[in-house]
Amino acid sequence: MTRDFSSLHHQSLTQLRAALDTKKISALELAEYFLVRAETNTDLNAFLHIDRDLTLAEARAADAQIASGNITALTGIPIAHKDIFVTQQWRTTAGSRMLENYVSPFDATVVEKLKTAGMVCLGKLNCDEFAMGSSNENSAFGAVKNPWDRSRIPGGSSGGSAAAVAAGLAPAATGTDTGGSLRQPAAMCGITAIKPTYGTVSRYGMVAFASSLDQGGPMAKSAEDCALLLDAMIGFDAKDSTSVATLDKYKTPISARLLTAFALTSRADASVSRPLAGVRIGVPQEFFGEGLSSEIAQAVDAALAEFEKLGAVRVEISLPRTSLSIPVYYVIAPAEASSNLSRFDGVRYGHRAAEYKNLADMIGKSRAEGLGAEVKRRILVGAYVLSHGYYDAYYLQAQKVRRLISQDFQEAFKKCDFIMGPVAPTTAWKMGEKSNDPVAMYLEDIYTLGVSLAGLPGMSVPCGFGHNGMPIGLQIMGNYFEEARMLAAAHQYQLATDWHTRSPEAFQ
Amino acid sequence: MSATPIGWEVVIGLETHTQLSCASKIFSGSPTTFGAAPNTQASVVDLALPGTLPVLNRDAVEKAIMFGLAVGGTIAPYSVFARKNYFYPDLPKGYQISQFEWPVVVGGKVAIVLDGVEKTVQLTRAHLEEDAGKSLHEGLETMGVSGIDLNRAGTPLLEIVTEPDMRSAAEAVAYAKALHGLVTWLGICDGNMQEGSFRCDANVSVRPTGQKEYGTRCEIKNVNSFRFLERAIEYEIRRQIELIEDGGRVVQETRLYDADRDETRSMRSKEDAMDYRYFPDPDLLPLVIDAAWIERVKSAMPELPAVMSKRFISEHHLSSYDAHLLTASKATSTYFINMVATGVSAKTVTKWINGEIANFLNREGIAIDDPQMPSKHLMMRLMASEARGEITFASARNLFRSWCEQLDQQLIKLGEAIGQEIEQSQWQRYLDEKGLRSVSDISTIEKIVDEVLAANPKSVEEFKSGKEKAFQSLVGQVMKASKGKANPAQANEILKKKLST
């Protein structure tokens, strides 16, 4: 018996849940459906590792759970993981030749938590090498193409994740964000993603890029889907010293508060038509200056107008050190990376050069062969800023400015509940367009770096399209541990708009 | 031991890596047992597999706090773990996690006693860090490979750094011994130097007497015993002085001590020194220690040697020198306390521990709780009998020596007596059988004295002409004639009486 499951990839996680619960479809069929889509759309290069047997085994286990009635909101729903999360069963390359054949003996905490929640792993997703990049052109296993226009980049570094969700190859994906790697590809591929407060999602099992900035998060089609995923991903992890103890704020699932997060504030003029009545949205003037494309400015402005219709009010704010976030980030992140990537020496695992003269030569050659150009560039920059005589001028100075950037946000949050603005200054660019100009690429991160440096939560919500037909994302930034209210606000926006429901023509 | 040549002053500072006796590693849950098969005690964290993260071992912190309190240092309310970056195959992460700018203990001091003179060595700091693994070459040469054993990687260390306060190799050794006594006393380190639990690096420089500036220093590594520490420093002092006297200059460098050749050899110069690119480890939060935590650790601490030493002086009327020796190690003080508790006078026990027993232990290079020591029960009987005058000190000493050399077949035959409680009656029988009971029967001693006086008319003459020394010689003769069994006090008295008549 064949059943027609077409358009399952347009359905929300809640809809898939209902289909599973009402036995319209089994977890096995659902997994098979997405596996086929992934296998037939390999030209996007979104997936790095697919293993049907492993996926189908997990799906059967999920079906057994469903049959037993012992389920979560996510049991039986497929997800694919950015290849920066280590997995026991699928290889983990971090997009690097260095780890081409690496198999981890343990699952990342995030992978484990989602598996425990009953999710079925579809495989591993392409990304920039060690999550270093804004275009996904830095993967050792080839660039990822944007499903909206295959000649364009999907954004990075979670480009494979964004492309897979946008193309409907997976209903959801994990990603990581160090300086914008969840938000920027989400914006460029027209999907929703949230980088939660630093410390809420365990970093254990994430191949480290910059430890003080790295943060995992979900990527999906809507804020509602992201809330369901985030609920399953967050939580204290004793294996990560920077993990925050579970707060009262997270005791009630975020997904259960999407409609109540604002009602709790019991504003006098709150009503069904104005669910965000009184919510103050800070608009930083620095996010709308030179460099921002006018079509993005217009799309973001339209989104803000939509929020006003929902009852929110605009507040002019300033984040005066926004432009400094680029040099600060490109000192701190490479510094940490230069140290984090030292373990890839060809001694215990990973690529080892075939020929070498001595020990130093072995380590040197293994790294020279195993690591890509952008990774090497950042290691060199990082080693330089940490070196004797330069540490104070670069690393220490950057840390001081980092603190000031955090303070700027706290000043701003005295005047508003959220900060909103663009995610990136432009829509997805053509492949190769900025490959030879790393600085131009770094400048693309200007709006996302501040939140990363401050450890704040930030998300990207689809809010329009450019003249080239490429998606535009609205960035919503909240104060620490404000994920529930951010997702609730985004949810209200998505109830009122349909940008997030659009999908690329070629993947209908 | 060679003295420093006249005209030169030696300046020594020590850096000691003490392995903290924690059940698990400093940043992972792996066990720290010594001697396990290679790589059987290395977890994914110790192997630095991708995605792994360090989590600080609370016990290691508490041991550092304990040390800080014991040396009177400041427990930093806020200290920071940094990464020391360098590539080496037995350093899995490519960096060592160590405290750099902000150590957990600042300052403090350790008292040493050398030739009866007390001196204080100031500590600069003590900081927590992880040990590296080991590269193995032996037995693998034919295969053309080297092995890496990561069992030791991540073992908790407390590195204790002194100011350049020591002025001779002997002082450096005295400090090392005092520190060793302290950390084992506290139970924070097992002190096993062979297994590398207590490793000293010495910074040595020389300067002409009177010069204010320090000379260029060399760091000596790979010293795994107190004896080697002394010899390595002695060698290095000679080397540096000879070098300068020959018109050369000391180059700042790290030198390895080669015990077989008894010399230090250059390992790397300052020019080769790596830039470790230290920076705070973003995987670990700053270590925050509040007053309450310090209080909790304090309340669980054993009585410190200095405090115990003062207590011994007031409770048992011991000299400060004796009390210092008795509290040189936990084992010694425990031995003293247990022995006194059996009823033997503190004075007798002190005499034995700091005398005969110390001689034996020093000769053998062992501690008082070593199984080579005669059992506590035997020692208790021995000291008690000696104190009561049942046997003379000379007999007791001979008996002790025979036990130590395990020459006493009769005792071994007693078998069950070794290491077990010994009945008083059993002990008395033993003394009888050995014929060791002291002679305090006056007529017997008088008889011996008469014989000795008759056989030594010259000494008698000398004594009578005022030579006190002759009396001692006569006492010696009496003791010898009694095979050491004559009660010395009685012998003295009878001899005096007979000579004055």
Overview of this structure, please?
The complex is a heterodimer of chains A (508) and B (501). With 508 residues, chain A is α/β, with parallel strands linked by helices. Chain A has a single domain, classed as Amidase signature (AS) domain (Amidase signature (AS) enzymes). Chain A is built from 15 helices and eleven strands. Chain A has helices at residues 13-21, 27-40, 52-68, 109-116, 159-166, 183-189, 223-233, 294-309, 325-340, 359-370, 373-386, 392-413, 438-443, 446-454, 483-496, and strands at residues 47-49, 78-82, 120-125, 173-177, 192-195, 215-220, 280-284, 313-317, 418-422, 458-465, 471-478. In chain A, strand 10 (458-465) and strand 11 (471-478) form a beta hairpin. In chain A, helix 9 crosses helix 14 and helix 12 packs across helix 14 (446-454). The longest helix of chain A is centred in the C-terminal third of the chain and has 22 residues, at 392-413. Chain A starts with 12 loop residues before the first helix and ends in a 12-residue tail after the last helix. The model of chain A is unreliable at 264-268 (pLDDT under 50). Chain B has 501 residues and is α+β, with helices and mostly antiparallel strands. Chain B has three domains: 8-293, no CATH class; 302-434, no CATH class; 442-500, Arc Repressor Mutant, subunit A, CATH 1.10.10.410. Chain B is 40% helix and 19% strand. Chain B has helices at 58-70, 169-186, 226-245, 291-299, 305-316, 320-326, 330-341, 346-364, 376-388, 393-404, 409-414, 424-434, 442-455, 457-464, 468-481, 488-500; strands at 8-19, 74-75, 78-79, 81-85, 95-99, 105-106, 109-114, 117-130, 134-136, 147-149, 156-162, 198-208, 218-223, 253-258, 263-269, 279-280, 287-288. In chain B, the strands form four sheets. In chain B, strands 1, 2, 6, 7, 8, 11, 12, 13, 14 and 15 form a ten-stranded mixed sheet that branches. In chain B, helix 14 packs antiparallel against helix 15 (468-481) and helix 15 crosses helix 16 (488-500). The radius of gyration of chain B is 29 Å and the shape is elongated. Chain B starts with 7 loop residues before the first strand and ends with a helix. The model of chain B has no long low-confidence stretch (mean pLDDT 90). At the A-B interface, helix 9 and helix 10 of A face loops of B.
